TrEMBL record:
It comes from Candidatus Synechococcus spongiarum. It comes from the Bacteria. This is IS5/IS1182 family transposase.
Amino acid sequence: YDRCAHIFLSAVLLAATLSFWL
């Protein structure tokens, strides 16, 4: 399990959540 991939997916999910709420 790659930690970099986890951070990348977390950032994508965060961006999607922000774009959804804003």
